[in-house]
């Protein structure tokens, strides 16, 4: 049963990151707004992160590369953490939705959960 749940959650994580990655290309502006000021070329960074989200999600679904894809997603989740901190510190809305600041800060522990979720797939 644990194995079945793990596989279902693998597909769920893959769908989540692929959807998020596609969103980077279809609606880049909300992502551009949360790129910290000290980083160059925000639009390029949004496209690069979206590409690697899609790649990582697809990789999770391919048994021969799933472990490497999980490590790649962990690296990506860590790499985008400054954007989430920047978003919370500057109270930048989620797209067009203005939310209470505590919701933006709550995204940071959620990022840790994503890292742990991906890490689960680095194990045999």
Structure notes:
This protein has six helices and no strands. By secondary structure, it is mostly helical. Helix 3 packs antiparallel against helix 4, helix 4 runs antiparallel to helix 6 and helix 5 runs antiparallel to helix 6. The radius of gyration is 15 Å and the shape is globular. 23% of the residues are buried.
List the helices and strands and how they pair.
Blueprint: H1 2-26, H2 28-33, H3 42-60, H4 66-79, H5 81-89, H6 101-120
Helix pairs in contact: 1-3, 3-4, 4-6, 5-6
- Principal-axes geometry comes out as globular
Low-confidence stretches: none
Number of helices: 6
Average pLDDT metric: 95
Rg (CA only): 15 Å
Oligomer: single chain
Number of strands: 0
Tell me roughly what share of residues is in helical segments.
over 70%
Report strand %. Answer: under 5%
Largest sheet: none
Give helix and strand order, one letter per element, not per position.
HHHHHH
Structural class: mainly alpha
Distance between the termini: 16 Å
Summarize this structure briefly:
By secondary structure, the chain is an all-alpha fold. It has six helices and no strands. The protein is globular.
Can you tag this structure with a few keywords?
single chain; 124 residues; mainly alpha; 6 helices; 0% strand; globular
């Amino acid at each position: 049963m644990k194995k079945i749940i793990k596989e279902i959650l693998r597909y769920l994580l893959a769908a989540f990151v692929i959807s998020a990655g596609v969103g980077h290309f279809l609606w880049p502006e909300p992502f551009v707004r949360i790129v910290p000021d000290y980083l160059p070329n925000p639009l390029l960074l949004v496209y690069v992160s979206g590409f690697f989200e899609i790649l990582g999600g697809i990789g999770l679904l391919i048994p021969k590369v799933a472990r490497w894809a999980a490590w790649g997603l962990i690296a990506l989740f860590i790499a985008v953490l400054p954007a989430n901190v920047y978003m919370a510190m500057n109270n930048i809305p989620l797209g067009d939705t203005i939310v209470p600041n505590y919701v933006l800060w709550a995204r940071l522990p959620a990022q840790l959960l994503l890292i742990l979720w991906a890490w689960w797939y680095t194990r045999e």
